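Justification of computing resources. Each target in the renewal requires a structure prediction run like the one illustrated here; the chain below, 430 residues long, is used simply to show the kind of job we budget for.
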Amino acid sequence: MPKLMTLNLKQKFTDFLKTVFPETKFELFLFLLFLTAYGILGTVIAWDYRIIFDNRIPWDAYFSFDNRAIVMTGGGFERHPLANYFFNWIREFALLFSNGKKNETFRLVLAWCSNFAVSLSLVQIYKYLKNIITLPKKISLLILFFFAFFSTPILLSFTPETYTYTLLFLVLFNYYAALKIRKEEKIPATALALAAVSIGGLTITNIVKVYIPLLFEKNVFKNWRKFGNLVLRVLISVSVFVLLFLYRLDFKFLNFLNKSGEQYEKFSNPKVTPIWDMIASWFFGGNMLFSGFVIKDYHNKKGFQYKALFMDVYTSWIPYVFLGVILILILWSFAKNFKNKFVQILIISFLVDIVIHCVLKFGLHTSYIYGGHFIFVVPLLFGWLFYGYKDSPKILSFLYVTVSVLFFYLTINNVFRMAEFFNFLEMYYR
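Resulting structure tokens:
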């Protein structure tokens, strides 16, 4: 019996490695390709400029990212309840290479950790397209590289932030959950607890996304034993998360409620920009297509002055057309695959962020930083749209050409905007 248990554990560990990391030579090639491309970008930024981490700049140096605050403390406990533990490891790992100094080597290690996470996220996207949707390689690669040029993966590839690792954990969990549902297997309590701690621990509102796939397990609402088992698994994972969170708070839960109220008031005040344009230009568009930039004067409350870069709304009609086409394709995918439970999981997950940012308006004025929470849904829904017309060559060709044109415009725009970003770095962050 112990031998059988050992073999079972070895098999589970092997399956875990195959799920998380590149499984085939081609997947390894893709991973190394992205690691190299993003790595060159991150290395130049980390080595030649101080914007990734400067001890004098606590927050908002570029696009409202809180690099220093996140690296040093994990961020506020009310939004990032367990991130301090995770970033303690990241910080100590970087300090190990920099001999305890927060210098260019320290920045370089932070950038490469982010690079590794984003590159692995892209491999997970490819695995989902290939193994869950079963798309041909040609279509999968078009969608994958389209996503790789989104503003969110580009920025997160060198940014030490919670969103970087949330992107990886959410894409990985969606792929893992899809594998389980396809095999008509239940998601174990251990996997749920690990997902709740990693995903919800980095950003608390994302924890609800961990439980969405459970709604689509086979006969879970028709068999009271299966439903009871589902409830038990949820309770176990929530209990693990809550206990770890309360331990961080010294079991003073009222502090969390009070601080959460303050944060909602701070980040939900309406801005001068019309709400529809904040949604279009920042929540939806800003996580795919860079807009123009605005430079503002900031200080660290201790006298140090610095320049901060933010995204402006779009000033041309072309980006709005781009976003309109993307939205039409997403809605088309949902309509075509309305009864598909995998698509329903993605849509419900996306709706969580729409409610948080667009309805409740939390952080809507800087929602271009939250893309790691949801923007990966776009390529996956594109994949399901292609799947829906796998037997219609003419429509497939139309979709392929459409996405190719979108990809071309996205690439030209984002490369141009990144050149502007480097001009900003050259002027203020040498």
